[in-house]
Amino acid sequence: MSFMLRIIIILACGLWAWTSARAQEWVEIPGRNGVKLKARLFKPAGAGPFPAVVALHGCGGLGNAQGVINARHADWAVRLQAAGFIVVFPESFVSRGLGSQCNIRDRDVRSKDRAYDAFATAEWLAARGDVDRGRIGLLGWSNGGTSVLSASRSIRAPKGVDFRQAVAFYPGCKVMVEEGFRARIPVTILHGLADDWTPAEPCQALVGVRFIGYEGAHHDFDYPNLPIRTRKAAYSKDGSGTVTIGTHPQAREEAIRKVMGIFNSMR
Fold first, then answer.
1. Measured between alpha carbons, how far is 147 from 210 in angstroms, rounded to an integer?
2. Whether pLDDT at 58 is above 50
3. Which are the contacts of 47, defined by CB distance < 8 A and separation ≥ 6?
4. Sequence-distant (≥ 6) Cβ neighbours of residue 10 within 8 angstroms
5. What pLDDT does 243 receive?
6. pTM confidence score
7. Per-residue pLDDT tens for 16-30?
8. Residue 181 gets which letter from DSSP?
9. Which of 9, 33, 127, 152 has the least C-beta neighbours within 10 A?
10. How many CB atoms within 10 Å of residue 229?
11. Bridge partners for 42 per DSSP
12. Is the omega angle on the peptide bond into residue 49 within 30 degrees of 0, that is, cis?
């Protein structure tokens, strides 16, 4: 190998490493009520302006204590980033000094709090020169899905900007039904009909929402390569505290197509 070729390879590798580092980073977003939101930002290559998605993690948080986000969130982040979207995951729990909330019944962070986290993130995105403020979507899973519904209600909205589309994976909908949920923006719910953690039936009763159910699919059905298993949780359909989670390959594949179609319609 010639000396010049070695130099070219070294420079190319350096540029790749720099680009990869720039493609995702931790940022701090000014939240409501003095909260400083730690958030993971994924950015496509180029100058933009790009459409964007605010993504809300589930009850377990965004990832581990070392800052590595979990496989479900990473899978969606990379998928959306590759399709030309800026993606931001505000970490609602770590930002407040909290860990996983999955086994806590009386949680310190409510869906309303997380809705305000989503609003602060949308407002922060709208102020960026590389974001198309008219094409911002909202996405969430489980507890984050419930927070998507809270952020989509007609009784509240972000300041000076709004979401074009909202997608909630397997949210808990019981309280929303009891409170008389009305959607302010287009909302799609994707739910496993075999979900025994956050049952699908209350979500089917919501007014002004597009509901898509998948037969035989459990909670976390869109998670990449998660074997079906049981775990403990603060809430369950039968009150036992034992719930079923795991990937449903067909539902996952269909849901990916649906979600990408929904967000691409913002273009």
1. 17
2. yes
3. 130
4. none
5. 97
6. 0.90
7. 333 344 489 999 999
8. -
9. 33
10. 11
11. 24, 87
12. yes
State the pLDDT confidence band at 67, using cuts at 50, 70 and 90. confident
DSSP state of 95: G
Structural contact between residues 189 and 171, judged by C-beta atoms closer than 8 angstroms: yes
Domain 24-264 in CATH 3.20.20.70: no
Residue at token pair 């496989």? 71
The residue extents of the domains of the chain are 24-264
Beta carbons within 8 Å of 181's beta carbon, 6+ residues apart: 149, 153, 173, 206, 207, 208, 209
Integer Cα distance of 113 and 147 in angstroms = 8
Q: Phi and psi for 8 in degrees, rounded to 5?
A: -60, -45
Q: How many Å from the N-terminal Cα to the C-terminal Cα in the chain?
A: 46
Query: Quick one: average pLDDT of 236-265?
Result: 97
Tens-digit pLDDT profile for residues 182-223: 999 999 999 999 999 999 999 999 989 999 999 999 999 999
DSSP letter (8 states) at residue 201: H
